[in-house]
Amino acid sequence: QVCVVFSEELMCWCRALVESVRCQADGYQLGCFLVDYAKYCSVASENIRVLAGAFAKIPHRAKKCRLHCTKPLTLHIDYCENTAKIGPAKRWDTAAIQHFRKLLE
């Protein structure tokens, strides 16, 4: 369900999908995906509101997607044999993400 959250980074109210809820000492923190900005953010539970009827029908500007058949790779270094090979990884590393974003721009 899409709701409205206040983004501290953008300093405005945004439509968002709540993806996770974490309990903290001062309340709950919600992990959200901003559907009009394609950003992830963390929001305090007091900064969430129900989305008004007509606004819920507006299409999202951002969609979550994946690259078809593209798997993350990383550099595996073998210090004993003094070699380096590119191989599969569980997650994309930061350098690869930054490089991909630059290619998109």
TrEMBL record:
* Enzyme's top EC category: hydrolase
Which top-level group of life is the source organism from? Eukaryota
PANTHER family of this UniProt entry? ATP-DEPENDENT RNA HELICASE TDRD12-RELATED
What is the catalytic activity of this protein? ATP + H2O = ADP + phosphate + H(+)
User: What EC number(s) does this enzyme carry?
Assistant: 3.6.4.13
Q: GO molecular function terms here?
A: ATP binding; hydrolase activity; RNA helicase activity
Nucleotide-binding in keyword set: yes
The alphabetized UniProt keywords are: ATP-binding, Helicase, Hydrolase, Nucleotide-binding, Repeat
Q: Which Gene3D superfamilies match?
A: 2.30.30.140
Annotated GO biological processes are: germ-line stem cell division
Q: Where is the Tudor domain?
A: 2-68
This protein's name: RNA helicase
Fetch the InterPro entries from UniProt.
Tudor (IPR002999)
